[in-house]
Write a structure and sequence with these properties.
The complex is a heterodimer of chains A (248) and B (320). By secondary structure, chain A is α/β, with parallel strands linked by helices. Chain A folds into two domains: 163 residues, 3-Layer(aba) Sandwich (Rossmann fold), CATH 3.40.50.300; 76 residues, no CATH class. Chain A is 35% helix and 24% strand. In chain A, the strands form two sheets. Chain A has a six-stranded mixed sheet, sandwiched between helices. Chain B has 320 residues and is mainly alpha-helical. Chain B has one domain. Chain B has a two-stranded antiparallel ribbon. The chains are: A alpha/beta (248), B mainly alpha (320).
Chain lengths: 248, 320
């Protein structure tokens, strides 16, 4: 589904991504772990097209997307949520989701019809709002929404495009334990055919939702394996987990 | 997001009704003022579509209106086309010019966008200024007004022409409002609020911004057509960048991103200009003070401030 081959990114003399290789099957949940500065968000920016790689290749469904820009990749079914909320401020939750749904459905060029209010768009809005737990907050302005609701909407915008591949950059960043549980349930209930790559600092959540885990350090993949293999890895424990013992 | 609220409907209706009464009750000079306001209001609405709802602050809308005016004047006065054909051509050429400007500048933002549009406007000005067949710097006379005798109207009558111009304002406002409420308008607002996110959702931002500029230019072309008929003469002065600057002042005074505000702003500016111009030639100073006050008072403009006050009151009532 997604294949990354020998991906490198340099900022001048600084090598932030080094020969990264990954291969994800359709429907796989991949969690990317790594300490601060490991290059996780840079990897997401390379996958989403925000950054151009210095070398290497990215393939989506077998097609090379390395040279495509952000919007072209999004139209091929790659969607992302951001670590810092990147919403349509000043609009309501409903308007935010409608913008995303209408864009994905190609209903943006109609000059005299209100396709943002069409049944197809509103159906997606209601469906996604229910998925992320915002059904009763649809008519609330983003500015009036709580931080947790804004995080939910952040993921909701990405989901409203009905992606094939979803990149989630620290979806639980800054939220409380109750909201982490909600995100846990959300990821568990997402359609199984949806491929997801998640950067996550909450290790319990990461280990629970992942089919496989990729660990980055200094821009390199230092480990890849199942959650159990990751927990048992000396390399991972040394560079990332330290004395972490988990809930067990 | 644009919504045709009751406040907008009441404001537009009240301002246009007051202008109609002013034209009916007044003589020739008040009617000339009403026409001036109507043309400026149309141009300001067209600018508000891209600046207020698309975040594209243009300094070439005067030039676009000038292109519309020259196309209409050239086709009617020189080529002998009828008013309807000339109108369609003038609107199409204005929109086409806007599409080119929008297409070239859509990936530029901020001060660079403003400078690029200024450059386009100045290029258009120089071309018209040097175009001898269109009269060069002497301009072009002999433009006639629409022949609407078939429906019993005589636009050579100052009152009928003033009321006709107000009717065009209503049409332009209604078309702009319909487009802003459409999916295209919603998408344009999305681009204005968060262009990067719209790209991440898969939108071709460039295409939509270029199309928005073309639509706005189409409306600006309508202002140019009326301007040509108003004086029955066109000159390169129509395309000078200060015209675009004045339109921007109108939008800011009335309320950027409100659509109704530019109509109120046009009335305010023209009346201020004529009233202060009666006792001092330094009327620009007074306008400047008003503009500074409008910007310093939150930048919402006259109508924008009223709308904001109503919204705050509604929010307080809802929370009480």
């Amino acid at each position: 589904m997604l294949e990354v081959r020998d991906l490198c990114k340099n900022f001048g003399g600084l090598r932030v991504s080094r020969h990264i290789g990954m291969k994800l099957e359709k429907g796989e949940r991949r969690v990317v772990l790594g300490p601060n500065g490991a290059g996780k968000t840079t990897l997401f920016n390379l996958l989403a097209g925000t950054l151009k790689p210095t070398s290497g290749e990215i393939l989506l469904d077998g097609a090379r997307i390395t040279g495509m820009n952000v919007e072209q990749r999004a139209r091929r079914g790659l969607s992302r949520s951001y670590q810092k909320n990147n919403l349509f401020e000043g609009l309501t939750v409903r308007e935010n989701l409608a913008l995303a749904a209408a864009t994905a459905q190609g209903k943006t060029f109609s000059c005299f019809t209100r396709t943002h209010e069409s049944a197809a768009v509103q159906e997606t809005v209601e469906e996604v709002a229910a998925m992320v737990g915002l059904s009763d907050r649809l008519d609330v302005g983003v500015a009036q929404a709580s931080y947790g609701n804004r995080r939910q909407l952040e993921v909701g915008l990405a989901l409203a495009t009905k992606p094939k591949l979803l990149l989630m950059d620290e979806p639980t960043s800054g939220v409380g334990p109750g909201m982490i549980d909600a995100f846990h349930k959300l990821i568990a209930t997402l359609p199984r055919e949806l491929t997801i790559v998640i950067i996550e600092h909450d290790l319990d959540l990461g280990f629970d939702v992942a089919d496989r885990i990729t660990v980055l350090n200094y821009g390199e993949v230092v480990f890849e394996g199942t959650p159990e293999e990751t927990k048992g890895s000396d390399v991972v424990r040394e560079i990332y987990l330290g004395d972490w013992q988990g809930d067990a | 997001m644009f919504y045709q609220t009751s406040l907008k409907t009441i404001t537009v209706t009240a301002v246009l009704a007051a202008l109609a009464v002013y034209a009916i009750a007044g003589g020739y000079f008040p009617r000339e003022i009403v026409v001036e306001i109507a043309i400026l209001a149309i141009l300001a609405i067209s600018l508000d579509v891209v600046a207020g709802y698309g975040g594209m602050v243009s300094l070439c809308h005067g030039a676009i209106a000038g292109i519309g005016a020259y196309t209409f004047a050239g086709l009617t006065a020189l080529a002998g086309f009828d008013g309807f054909t000339a109108t369609v051509a003038a609107l199409a050429i204005s929109a086409l010019f806007g599409l080119v400007v929008g297409g070239v500048t859509a990936n530029i933002s901020g001060i660079f966008f403003i400078m690029a549009t200024l450059a386009f406007g100045q290029m258009a000005y120089v071309v018209i200024f040097e175009w001898k067949a269109l009269g060069g710097d002497d301009g072009l006379s002999g433009v006639s007004r629409y022949d609407l005798s078939a429906i019993g109207l005589n636009l050579n009558d100052s009152l009928q022409f003033a009321l006709f111009c107000l009717a065009v304002v209503v049409i332009v406002y209604a078309v702009a409002a319909a487009v802003l409420r459409s999916s295209f308008g919603r998408t344009l607002t999305g681009i204005h609020v968060n262009e990067d996110r719209m790209r991440a959702l898969g939108l071709s931002v460039w295409k939509h911004k270029a199309a928005a500029f073309a639509f706005s230019s189409f409306l600006a072309g309508a202002a140019g057509i009326l301007a040509a008929q108003h004086t029955m003469f066109v000159s390169p002065e129509l395309l000078v960048w200060t015209v675009s600057g004045e339109v921007l002042i109108v939008v800011i005074l009335g309320g950027l991103g409100t659509l109704a505000g530019p109509i109120a702003g046009a009335a305010l500016l023209v009346f201020l200009k004529h009233e202060t111009g009666a006792w001092t030639e330094h009327w620009h100073l007074v306008i400047g003070l008003f503009l500074i006050a409008a910007v310093m008072a939150g930048g919402r403009g006259v109508y924008g401030q009223i709308e904001h006050s109503f919204q705050r009151r509604a929010l307080r009532t809802a929370n009480a």
